[in-house]
Amino acid sequence: MKKESYIKFHEDISGKNTNFLIGSGTSFPFIKTLSLGENKPSLEDLLTDTNLDTNAKYMLFYFYYHNWIVKMFMHDEKTEDYKQVFENYKIFIRNGLNILRTEGYQLPKRMNIFTTNYDTFFESVFDNVVLENPLNYFNDGSRGFIDKYINIENYHLNVAHSGVQDNYKKEIPSFNLIKLHGSVSWQDTSQGIKIEYNKENILAKYEELKIYIEQIENIIDTSNTKEEMIERINNLATDVGESLLLDFHSDYNDLAIINPTKYKFSQTVFEQHYYQMLRLLSYELERKNTILIVVGFSFADEHIKEIVGRSLSNPFLKVYIICYDLWQRHKIEELFAGFIDNKIEILPKIETIFVSIFDIEDMSLTFTNSNHEEITEYEYDSNGCNRVYKLPLWKEYNIYLSSENENENDDSEIIAEGINAFEISSYCIIDDSGDEYFFETSYPKGDIYYLNSLMGSQTPMSDGEEDE
């Protein structure tokens, strides 16, 4: 990362109403995304398909609970993946607190974290950090002691420390945690949304269903189309007792979470709270001198996407979107066309990508764009086996193959034309033996590591020009 990018970022957020929109990418690899594999439908695609039978949907909810939700109860704290993600969150919170401590006395020392994650990484980190320094305030929107209930009004607080003799009043740094899609620690009750951090998962109660997990995974792996996948899951569901699935679904619905479906709500109280949280997000983004920093978030939630899009009319709003890869970058540029570089800054800044491919004898490659610029020069990697081409980040690429042998015909073979940077790695060259050699691309990735380097109290070391 360049030093000037780090300095500019800190200058931009200093003294501002700073908000974060955190998605599931920040809890990876401990918690997987909802992808079911390359060229496969997502879990949400399956659950929202109208051809999926009711019992089959309940089976997929069990599959979702078994493979995703259970990990969010944080019972695997000794795994390396957990430790890695926990440390990422901890560095993020520490960096935020350091920034807040440098704010002037006349400014609120508060940041808002809006997240769609159900897991309790933030809560676990809050407990850990407050032991290091008690003069921090972490607000999950709840009040109570033994019985804690969520209320949207609990977020509008400024917390101050006045000293032993009450002879001064100093606001302490605070974070508001707003969990837009609910939490595994939330339970919908007649008195409101109750927080139970020590709640146990219900897998043991439905041990009979566990035998179907491997069968569902096999269906996903071996089906060629979404239609085939749904038909096979429908057939599998007929082997399961309907009463068992109904009982599971009833217990599952006690979780106050938004399911990965288009029809998200089964609880009126939670639906009301969801829209209150969305209004809070909208309100914060309409304020003066506001910053929104987005990381690990895909904008799949239509309501959130609409609120962010509408807020771009606020002349006092600046949005940073940290994109993990070139594909997400492309989707963001499509989604918010007209606002990029004006209201929205996509990070990390990428001016160059590196394209490598196995060094085939007599191979000559030419990369061009629509302006007829072309690049043929390359270097070898450290092993001397692959060519590495340093390319500008163009809007589109053409790739042509010819022979370096002067005796060969000069005709070029078209490998690809009019493709985006993220598509390059899906193309290959086939040698005379029929072996396929695919292109590989590398560039700086945008994730919570990158965000932590931006927010860090020390100027980050240079990343170099590429990220392997």
TrEMBL record:
This is SIR2-like domain-containing protein. It comes from Listeria newyorkensis.
